[in-house]
Input
Amino acid sequence: MKANRNAIGALLKLARRTSEHLLLNIDSQTSEDRKELIAIMSSAIDGIETTSVDTKTPSQTNVRALRHAPKVFGASVPPSLDGLRQAAFSAFGYVNWAEFYAENNWSRPFLSEFANGEGVGPDGVLINHEVILGLFLMGPNTYYPPHAHPAEEFYVVLSGDASFQVGTGGQPNRKHQGDVVVHRKNEAHAIQTGNEPLFAVYGWIGEIFEPSWYRDDMNDFSEPKKYPEIRKQ
Output
């Protein structure tokens, strides 16, 4: 019972801090449609406290990228980000860490550097059928290739830096601590890390039960979508 209370407390704190950060990081450079989407995301995260229904014990799996955790925990952050980072650290042991994808030719180059921790969601420690909220860690000098999903997604970068490519023809955009990245429904996106591991809070809203997909050439719309096997446990 105490472990459940600790998990609920840590994950709800992560939700509150994340929602606050999303709203505080809408600025004049944010397009109007992305401002609206960020506001919707913040509202969905706020709803976790009333829509989460149960808890389960975090799964214990071998997630190779978690070897980078000591470096992530040792990274410094600006004072404005300290509250969210501390909430993420408190939730670190209350998410279901997984490598997320089964190994195939597409996932093999990045899989050993990839860690997805679902804290809130259908497969989270705090079960929720409306939204996913969790932690994301990817090792240095790693490329997460273009893919998409029907759910809308956000990342909040906590440490490290990485280039996020949004859209099939978009230019990679370097993001740093505190930056928010938003992906619309079925919008292709990719991530390239630098010399430090990337640690972030992430979330999905909308069609969270629909699978991720990719094409060998994301610009070839005649190519059928491919659906990698998902392994969250």
